[in-house]
Amino acid sequence: MANVYDVLRERGFVEQVSDEEKIRAMLASPVTCYIGFDPTSSSFHAGSLVPIMALAHMQRHGHRVLAVMGGGTAMIGDPSGKSELRQLIPEAEIDANTDGLRLQLGRFLDFSAGQAIMVNNAEWLRPLNYIAFLRDIGRHFSVNRMLAAESYRMRLETGLNFIEFNYMLLQAYDYLTLFRRYQCTLQMGGNDQWGNILAGADLIRRVDGGEAQALTFPLLTTATGAKMGKTEKGAIWLDGRRTTPYEYYQYWINTDDRDVGRFLALFTFQPMDEIRRLSSLTGENLREAKELLAYEATRLDHGEEEADKARNASKALFSDGADIDEGAVPTVEIDRRRLEEGIPAFALFADAGLVKTRGEARRLIAQGGAYVNKRRLETADEVITPADVAGGSLLLRAGKKRYCRVRPSG
């Protein structure tokens, strides 16, 4: 089996490493690694998939992986990559979020055989005696070196809160604790965590005389410069109640042509030879690559059944043909009495969430980009009534790719 370090590098996961030669050598045999996840939300979003997939690759290559929930660090807030103080989250909300994230990680990692372990740093951080912590841990940190770290340097211009200044110490202490409890010798994370991870490796050396390594992932943006996992409508969530499997599938199938090969390597387990073949396709043929990316990404997050539904619905919507599984397409309900009174088309599109404002709906219709039951609307003021309902609902389309089913209720 190939060395997982070479697999990660070939697939585009590696941005910086503390010592490439040592990391490749240590990964020739089973090791324990970890990635921390701060439970600031009840769901991961698509931008969280890089570290999750990295852990999955590590496990598939025989290494033990630790998914560390930041139930302690989330009470402070990581200043990395932020221009202002993060909102402090109540302890009960952090714990509830942790439960939700645990379920989602279980779709990508196998926690049943001990090769993947979920731990929560609240276990050792929340009971800390502050004075003892400063004496035993804080004395190993140079304020000058901390201020030189990019995550702190960026914040000095806008103001760095003292509570945030402790974050590096706590994350370093996490690494030391995991080194002692689980013999963890590799921490991975986003490139904005580079300084924090190095601080942990240095703390292990200073306190226990041990050796530990660091690896960071690139902070992804799309070819258009957008932040990974973000759309005009907001974040693409891994929770199917917040982003339906159909919407999730559509996010991936609408990937920019320039990103398809890169995303196949990062977000699927397809062999690299097949990814290179798919990446070489052009024009309409590239649709094959996008469909595989969308299906595999959806299957990993939502399971094969939901991926099949999403793929079938997508093909039906774009083929003007087959029946559409109603459960696969985003559906909203509208009061039947409003429909009986007649709803202007521009208001219906806005209320259904296909556009942000009624003004935007008017522009969409004027440009010929709005459809009701595959019939293009001619005027924004056209009144939609029960006569337009087909098969118990209305199928709205905005542009070429955004669909919504509207079902009368009440």
Biggest sheet descriptor: 6 strands, mixed
Oligomeric form: single chain
Q: Kindly name the structural category.
A: alpha/beta
CATH topology of the largest domain: Rossmann fold
Per CATH, the architecture of the largest domain is 3-Layer(aba) Sandwich
Stretches where pLDDT is under 50 for at least 5 consecutive residues are 81-85
Q: State the distance separating the first and last CA atoms.
A: 60 Å
Q: Strand order of the main beta sheet, please?
A: 1-6-5-2-3-4
The whole-number mean of residue pLDDT values reads 87
What count of helical segments does DSSP give? 19
Instruction: Give the number of domains.
Output: 3
CATH homologous superfamily heading of the largest domain: HUPs
CATH class bucket of the largest domain = Alpha Beta
Strand percentage lies at 15-25%
Number of strands: 15
Task: Report a brief summary of the structure.
With about 400 residues, the chain is an alpha/beta fold.
Description:
The protein is α/β, with parallel strands linked by helices and 410 residues long. The protein has three domains: 214 residues, 3-Layer(aba) Sandwich (Rossmann fold); 98 residues, Tyrosyl-Transfer RNA Synthetase (Orthogonal Bundle), CATH 1.10.240.10; 79 residues, Roll (Structural Genomics Hypothetical 15.5 Kd Protein In mrcA-pckA Intergenic Region, Chain A). 44% of the residues lie in helices and 15% in strands. The chain is built from 19 helices and 15 strands. The strands form four sheets. The protein has a six-stranded mixed beta sheet with strand order 1-6-5-2-3-4, sandwiched between helices. α13 packs antiparallel against α14. The longest helix has 17 residues. The radius of gyration is 24 Å and the shape is elongated. 41% of the residues are buried. About 1% of the residues have low confidence.
